[in-house]
Amino acid sequence: MGRKLLWASLVLGPVTLLLHYAFHVGDVTLFAVAAAALVPLAWLIGEATEHAGEHTGPGIGGFLNASFGNAPELIIALFAVAQGLPNVVRASLAGSVVSNILLVLGIALFLGARQTQQLDRKSLLGQLALVLAATLLFLVAAVPGWHGNPERHSLAVVSVPVAVVLLLLYLAVTAWGLRRHKRLHAESGAKPGGGWTLPTALAVLAAATAMTALVSEILVHSLDAFADAAGLSQFFTAAVIVAIVGNAAEHGGAAVIAQRGNLRLASEIAVSSSAQVALLVTGTVALLSWLVKPALPLTFRPVELAAMGGSALVVALVLWDGRARRWEGALLVGLYAVAAVGFAFAGDR
Length: 349
Description:
mainly alpha, A middle domain of Talin 1, two-stranded antiparallel ribbon, 1% strand, globular
């Protein structure tokens, strides 16, 4: 019954587009419908990723989910840059990194670790090291931005080499990691089940991601009206609401996959998505912002840097032994709640 309901609710995606472009309904209504539409889309991306993971192994499957799931995040960020909302972009990127490794991973561990389970320690710690490296690189442009105008052109120029290093580092480490996951999957001798073929799974992933991007853009359009009605700061709205909504695919996908017992894949989705946002998405946005204008300086606030770096360190300590436990998942979710409260008190820049 649940699966039938999820399949049927996929119609909410086209309904959202229809309400926006044909009927021009109010922003608050659009926000509610778009948020509801992202739930079945997230489930579908998780479903397709799990089928793809049967052919590729959990490591590559997690990379695929992160890549398809982060496409809306990239689109949302570029749209916000073009609208002249640099603080929203940086807050949503930082919030996305934090929500993936605390909220998503925490939920996955709580749902999937019914008994202590072994995770791919080497892969997960490597991805967390990337997040820490990115946080340190952000300091190059961020520290000068704490004094004077953080949007000044010179800091946008300084951010370019930082973005290039982020991209090169991510591509190098990811290429090595994918080769390792491919070798481990081949050595395991695991055979695909009776699910979808790999081309079918990839096609569904692409289609679901495209619809997610369209719905996410509409939702971002309506966020201001929602934030005003709720009396929320722009920073909190971007760091928590936009980050969670923009990453609904990973959030829902990891939860569904963990609930089914595939915790290795779910943990790879959460942690690799966080690393991908910190390096690939952030670096790409910083470079592409020169095309859509104005160029985006990577001048993150101290609260954003502390949240990203601190979250990566805490999760690295939790996963240091490579074992997953339910209480650790509850701990990470609780820490995310603390971070969200901190974002609420931080206020706007």
